[in-house]
Amino acid sequence: MSANNWTKPASRPQDIDNLVSGVDRYNPSNVSILEDYLYHQIRSEEYDCLANLAILKLYQFNPDLYNPDVVINILVKALTATPAPDFNLCISLLDERTPNTQSDEPDPLPVLLPLLRQLQDLLYKCRFPAFWKTYGSGEYESLRDNYTVEVTGFENAIRQVAIRAVTTTFTRIDSKRLGSYLNLDGKDLDAYVKALGWSVDNAGIISVPPNPDNQIEATVVQEQIKLPQLARVIAHAVKA
Amino acid sequence: MSQQRMALWAAEADIDEDVDLSLAIGNNYGNDHYEDAPIQPQIDGSTLIAMQQHMAQQAAFGQIPDVVKGFIVHFHQAVKDNNLAEIMVAYESGWNKYTEKFYSKTEWPEAEVIAPLVKDDPIFLILYRELYYRHVYSRLQPNIDDRFHSYENSCELFNYLLNSDGPVPLELPEQWLWDIIDEFIYQYQVFCTWRSKTKAKTDDELAMLAESGPVWSSYSVLNVLYSLMQKSRINEYIGAQREGKSVEEINEIVGEYGQKPLYRMLGYFSIIGLLRVHVLLGDFTLALKVLDNIELNQKSPFTRVTACHVATYYYVGFCYIMLRRYPDAIRTFVTILNFIMRMKQYHTRSYQYDQINKTADRMYALFTVCHALAPSRLDDNIANIAKERFAEPYAKMSRGGQDALAAFEELFLYACPKFIIANSPPYEDPVAIQALVSPSPGDSQPDLTAPTQLDATHRHLSLFLADVAAQTPVPTLRSFLKLYTSLGAKKLANFLDEDEEEMVQEMMVVKQASRSISRLPGTEGTGLLQGQTITTSDLNFVIDENMVHITESTVGRRYAGWFIKNTERTQKILDDLKNSPLPAPRANQSASAPEQQQKQAKPTGQKVAWGGVKTSA
């Protein structure tokens, strides 16, 4: 995997790129452009971490702009990037806020933030069955009904997190085990595995296609001598 | 007076509408500004107060030791002549010498007092105040006036540099230019930390903070750094240089400002300054992104000032840790720690040596942290020093478990940057601030010195510790895996006394922990955020349904270092032998004794040795 697509996703429009790369990113009047772009990402299953960090940066400098719904959506999107550090990078920019007493509506972030951090923790620890159980529990209803339901393909994006972990670790995996990681069973699971292009044998064992991470090989690392190491010896020999 | 100065930086509000940050600086700064120094009573309306001030200043002037007066006159002359060598002497040794001698516990004379010595030269007085406040911050306890005035003085300096009619004819040593940027950010950081502690503020302080506006605001600080970068067109300069353009072409590109060493170096240092500011504010990606154009190698111009060189690597390395890119962090620390070790012999007496040493020690701590998380063989030498210095925490961290977390926390808090909160507590809102200062009854006793709940460091710490905690099972699992080439999952779970499914999920964490994004050799110049996934562990495994297969990469014996070292040693011995005089024949010893002594006294003289024979042969 390369970091190129992370620093500049192919789907990022040119005007957003100019904004994110230049000093314009500090201009508070651009926040709505970036917020619109976030909602575009949410609808079309795209993801652009750096652009979203730029929103949080503007919130950090201009507390008046703060919009908790936007923050929560950014964090939800960042969850799907695990095990990349995106979620933490977002939290790093969330300076503690003095509660705004004037506002009529209560700020949902203080309640949801610990829940989101719990989800990120489970994902980062590869506790996928526990993730689905927690995410489906009553406590998370407000997150599901108000936020993740709007994020197109959220659950599939989380499944991708699990698939990435499985791909690196397994050559073959029991379909029941994989099902528990993906929160899928029966026909849904069959369809999902088929869509991945993975094959299943009669006993329900799924073969994970070979990739650089699940091919293991014992190697002996040989020493390589670079020219600069020998520079002094050679220089001396020339002088003598 | 302070009112007038503040007006310039109130331009901050302009940023809101203004796209171009350099424009936001504005030109509403009165040209007559320098004429209102209080030393000239005719400008001050009320003569009586002015007279009193004048007399007090004369008294203060009388107190200054003559050598210091002489020093200031000399210093001023050097600055006026743009005599870099003399400025450097005054700046590096003179100032420190007289600080030790006369001002180790008290302020230097105020700029207004010494003004007659330098013929009221406004530029020198700004530079003098820069040193004056730096001394207050480093040796004494700055009060709120110092904090505000040092900000105003920095603004005057940057305003002079950026908004004069064309590039200013000033020249300063690179070291000083770095110190100006470095100190500016340091004072900003200290101010933010002080500001975020709402308790233990006097009423006067609360009132001043309520009105402080742009003083040390994040936008003001970024504004200065970006303006210096834009004015010097430093990024264009670096780009043009990389493309190998000629001097004329580069001069064309960078314009009249960028051609001058003063602006060019300030531009460079502002990039490093931005790196630091972004780290302090917790924006680790943006911090690395501003360095996109800078090549991290020993040839880069920012390495010419050692303090800058060291700071750059410290902040870059720290960013990599927060990005979970431990191999990159390790490489960064190893490079600079090796450099510091090599330069030790030259720098021990430099006044910055202590500071560099402290930073180095923090980097050893961070290196230890990374090494525990992603063991590598990059540099045994540095690894050994780090393990020796932090032996106990290192042992705990590499064992894993609860003790490990405490050790990670200890080293992180010791070595992390001094994080700040971007915004002020609501000093302008008396009700809100009152609620913060005196919490409702029932809350615990307010601790006057502790930071309030607005503590950035602990936020970053908790994120880092959560990452680390996720990895705590890794060392144990690895130590079991090392013993086998294949092993049933159930059996492994039994060893660990764990549920099989839980253990299999932990195995995915082990796999995850042994992969990292990292910059690859040969990709210099592509930006510090770029990289590819690499393997960070010697131990590799894969799960085939319920069977774990394990392999381990081993390292062949290394010979090169040994042979190179001994070849060099032999060459040196041979050289020494060739250069030493032939032993005098025994018979003549007494006769030629004086001559012999003479020869020994100056061994650099004529060499009657094998070397000579060889060259003539």
UniProtKB/TrEMBL annotation, chain A:
It is found in: Cytoplasm. Residues 47-224 form the PCI domain. Keywords: Cytoplasm, Initiation factor, Protein biosynthesis. GO terms for biological process: formation of cytoplasmic translation initiation complex; regulation of translational initiation. InterPro entries: ARM-type_fold, CSN8_PSD8_EIF3K, eIF3k, PCI_dom, Transl_init_fac_sub12_N_euk, WH-like_DNA-bd_sf, WH_DNA-bd_sf. Its main location: cytoplasm. GO terms for molecular function: ribosome binding; RNA binding; translation initiation factor activity. The keyword Protein biosynthesis applies. Pfam families: CSN8_PSD8_EIF3K. Signal peptide: none annotated. One of its GO terms (cellular component) is eukaryotic 43S preinitiation complex. Gene3D superfamilies: ARM repeat, domain 1 (1.25.40.250), Winged helix-like DNA-binding domain superfamily/Winged helix DNA-binding domain (1.10.10.10). Component of the eukaryotic translation initiation factor 3 (eIF-3) complex, which is involved in protein synthesis of a specialized repertoire of mRNAs and, together with other initiation factors, stimulates binding of mRNA and methionyl-tRNAi to the 40S ribosome. The eIF-3 complex specifically targets and initiates translation of a subset of mRNAs involved in cell proliferation. Component of the eukaryotic translation initiation factor 3 (eIF-3) complex. Belongs to the eIF-3 subunit K family. HAMAP family: eIF3k. This is Eukaryotic translation initiation factor 3 subunit K.
UniProtKB/TrEMBL annotation, chain B:
It is found in: Cytoplasm. Its main location: cytoplasm. GO terms for molecular function: translation initiation factor activity. The keyword Cytoplasm applies. This is Eukaryotic translation initiation factor 3 subunit L. Coiled coil: none annotated. Component of the eukaryotic translation initiation factor 3 (eIF-3) complex. Component of the eukaryotic translation initiation factor 3 (eIF-3) complex, which is involved in protein synthesis of a specialized repertoire of mRNAs and, together with other initiation factors, stimulates binding of mRNA and methionyl-tRNAi to the 40S ribosome. The eIF-3 complex specifically targets and initiates translation of a subset of mRNAs involved in cell proliferation. Pfam families: Paf67 (PF10255). Keywords: Cytoplasm, Initiation factor, Protein biosynthesis. InterPro entries: eIF3l (IPR019382). It comes from Coprinopsis marcescibilis (Agaric fungus).
